[in-house]
């Protein structure tokens, strides 16, 4: 590192400095200063960025959880301005790890920075991942990101989206991801949870099964009704909290606290 510090202080931008950064990165890819030096040298030397992209591809495939590697790829992609093979590369990477936070962050940057045809098939790409693993919260979050950020906005019929998410809830009703997704798309469309009766009715159908995720959705509905002045929802909210106290023991103390707060409301 003394050698690197010396060349960094000298301001030298040469092939030997580029080779030095390659060596250091191979041993410590988290060294931000070395990455910045490399980026400056690449620009000064007018290096082949397609070749650099191949190099960083090898790195990211071997160390996919490195923020610095993904950030360097972003810098190179921005300079290269050629996304022709990037989505195929990312789709292949997602088959190895479909919940890699850095990968999803990079993908969303790619979409918002370059836009255009990159949005095409993005929804179908993420649907493949949800079909493979309905519990993949990263894929659910990306689906929401696509619907609200792509050109033209949401676009999809809310009714169609509700039907889609309900089919996924039925596959794994204890999975929080589609329940949260339902909340998100309903809110984004300026609707309240109690206005969307299909999801509300689906949640009620799981009462006897004591599924916490469905009960929590119902609780959200009842508390929303209470906030709008509908005191008739108080008993339903209290009953739902009693179910949660019994059937979600990990958070029982929290549900007991919520129940106590409702009792205060009852006597106010």
TrEMBL record:
- Enzyme Commission number(s): 2.5.1.58, 2.5.1.59
Give GO terms: molecular function aspect only.
CAAX-protein geranylgeranyltransferase activity; protein farnesyltransferase activity
What the entry lists under InterPro entries is as follows: Prenyl_trans_a
Query: Looking at the keywords, is Acetylation present?
Result: no
User: Record's GO cellular component, any one?
Assistant: protein farnesyltransferase complex
Its keywords, alphabetically, are: Magnesium, Prenyltransferase, Repeat, Transferase
Tell me the leader sequence span: none
Q: Which cofactors does this gene product need?
A: Mg(2+)
Entry similarity comment: Belongs to the protein prenyltransferase subunit alpha family.
The protein's name is Protein farnesyltransferase/geranylgeranyltransferase type-1 subunit alpha
Q: Which organism is it from?
A: Synchytrium microbalum
**Lineage, top ranks:** Eukaryota, Fungi, Fungi incertae sedis, Chytridiomycota, Chytridiomycota incertae sedis
